[in-house]
Amino acid sequence: MNRSGLVWRQLVLPVPADEARVRSFLSALVTATGSPTVAFEAIGSGGQVLWRLGTEPWAVRDIHALALAHLPGVRLLNPSQQHIVPESERVELHLHRAAHLASDVVATRPPAAAAALRFNGTVSAPLRVEATETVTRSLLSMLASAKGKESIRLQLVCGGRLKPRTPTEQLGHPKAAREVQQHLGEPGFVVALRVSASASSESRARALVRTVAASLKGLEVPGSWLRIWKSSLSAVVEARSSWWLPMPLRISELPAFLAWPLTEGLPGVASAHPVLMPPSPAIPSQGRLLGQAATEAQGRPVALTAEDSLRHLHLLGPTGVGKSTMMAHLALQDIAAGRGVVVIDPKGDLVADIASRIPSRYMDEVVILDAADEAPVGINPLAGARNPDLAADVLLGVMHSLYADSWGPRTHDILHACLLTLARRGDASLVVVPLLLTNPGFRRSVTGRVAKHDPMGLGGFWAWFEAMSDGERQQAIAPLMNKLRPILLRPQLRAVFGQRRPRFDMTDIFGLRSGHTEAGHERPRVVLVNLAKGALGEEAARLLGSIVVALVWQAAVGRAGLQAFQRRPVMVHIDEVQDYLRLPGDLGSALAQARGLGVGFSLAHQHLGQLPKDLKAGVMANARSRVAFSLSRDDARAIAALSQGTLKPEDYQSLPRYHAYASLLVNGEAAPPFSLRTTALGSPVRSLNSAQGQSRARFGQSLSDVEQNLLDLVDGGPGDSVPTGDQIGRVRRPGGTGADGRSA
After folding, report:
1. Which end of the chain is less packed: N or C, by CB atoms within 10 Å?
2. What ranges does the record give for the region Disordered, renumbered to this chain (predicted)?
3. Distance between CA 9 and CA 37 in Å, rounded?
């Protein structure tokens, strides 16, 4: 037991602390069970002011509960156990190690001085409580004046209780009578008020004590003035109750003696922003863990249920604040829970973080799609589609959205016909489109078949196309070729999009094919897409990412006919969402529909200005949970407005790294925002190269194999029948005559 016999806790106070709530807390202390001694201290050291609260051991739990109930945002920390909070977070959130806070001897080590303070005449006449804010500012200024190794300690020990009573003396002036009656009608404490200081010399320590005491003179009223008495240092160390020089103080008078931050911009007080918001008790601690509550040193876990996750999660904040760490945690939890997972990563770091930490027992179900790989995994929306026309429309929609600024009706018409033709063939790919348009022999071998089965549709288009002269055709296809060539000239993308029969099908992620693969493996349910723009190029990365997301949506819609219990939840995590989310039709309707299809999106980006108008509207309206990290001024205003006055833009702007405000959906209802900090990822269990090697062995194809397969298609190699008898367009008959009458 320490010399004071009290258990001390550091107080981390909300700034500003509401004075009405402070009085409410003090009133509750008056009636606390057992009437325990309660001591308040403000300690100035190194230009800053910290606060602590002490009480008797048996009353600690009750006093702490009262503080938490009456002072929203307050934190009570055990100074001797502050190592629980990482140093970086302690500095950024103004939680100081301050080991001396665990000691009784702070500001009493020689050379030191101490004084006891008392206002005479406070039994009936109230002090000048309207000066509380001014006195508080002066007190904090003096406490913050302690420099270097100096320290100052303002101590208020609340012992005996004062009951409300009526005045016994007669006061002639009605106003004075009312003031005295109101004053005595409040409960209060019999207190001991002390100041001590430790400095380089005893004279300096006495000077510090006098400056703090002088700050309280602003409370004096006629007939009640401040007296200063010399005190022993041991009285401060032991936090003795008021048996000598007791001073009665009513509830309305007490806040002026606490030196608590009752307003903003006070000396020695850390910034009021970001304010710390505790999580609602309704926020679950189990489920998809997002991090820990920043208001608790022990860090209560905070989570989002899988059901609420289907209403989508919006992650907002600049690079380096913790978005990717949170997404990696969520993806790893989804994998461990058996959900389908798709990750779209424009940088590559997120894929590396996830792939290197997936437990080995799940690696058989993981596909890593990286166009820069030596034998990449392929995707081909046109190959073996259950609904070829829908597959063509999905791919057409992606291309249209990517090139909307330079998209004309002829480009749309030609590409649509090409995609429909190749999709109905069933074994071609996007890479074949330029060949289809520029290689007459190959084109006629392909179009003859589809024209025979659709003479009024595709047959009519290809007849028109063949009827044009070479110059007219070149002019017609030039805008489309300008869009395709810069992408498909890249060997990396040809290896991905050129696979006529990819070894991976996006429908596996959604459980649309049951059982194991032909090789006896588990069907894949995790797709990690690495779109590192440095290796792939920005335009190519947008195309690949957008097509993957479109295929995910197509597969999701494809299981609409399944019963709800048959739809395995699939979580789609998209970083830099503005580059890749191109769902068909109205985005808001699609996101709303996704919940019923068992698909939950985690949508991350850096600032709201990145989002096109329709995308921004869809995300803001339909992502019902939001985690906002440190924001720019404009974004902070927009997001703070959603908190209904709970948070200010300055709170979002002041958030340190790895901290955020979370506004979550809980059982379908919006919960108030709270302070959250992300947790670090665990240690890797393998290298990214090792994970890619496993994926490559099962699902990858080399560029040489892909191109050889395409050549077989063009040349009519094994397995590729060429229906030469089904050609359409202008075909010269052998031995016929031309327009000039000469033999052809």
Report:
1. N
2. 714-744
3. 14
Length of the chain: 744
**One-letter amino acid of 740:** D
CA distance 450 to 528: 36
Identify whether residues 514 and 439 lie together within a single domain: no
The token duo for 222 is 């006629």
Q: Which domain holds residue 35?
A: 7-257
309 lies in the same domain as 426: no
SS (H, E, C) 235-303: HHHCCCCCCCCCEEEECCCHHHHCCCCCCCCCCCCCCCCCCCCCCCCCCCCCCEEEEEECCCCCCCEEE
For the stretch 209-268, pLDDT in tens is: 999 999 999 999 888 899 999 999 999 999 998 777 789 999 999 999 999 999 888 888
In a domain, 424, yes or no: yes
Is 433 part of a structural domain of the chain?
yes
Instruction: For residues 371 and 412, state if they share a domain.
Output: no
727 domain-assigned: no
Give CB contacts under 8 A, 24+ apart, made by 735-744: none
Q: How many domains in the chain? A: 3
Rg of the chain's alpha carbons, rounded to an integer?
A: 37
Q: pLDDT, tens digit, for every residue of 320-354?
A: 999 999 999 999 999 999 999 999 999 999 999 99
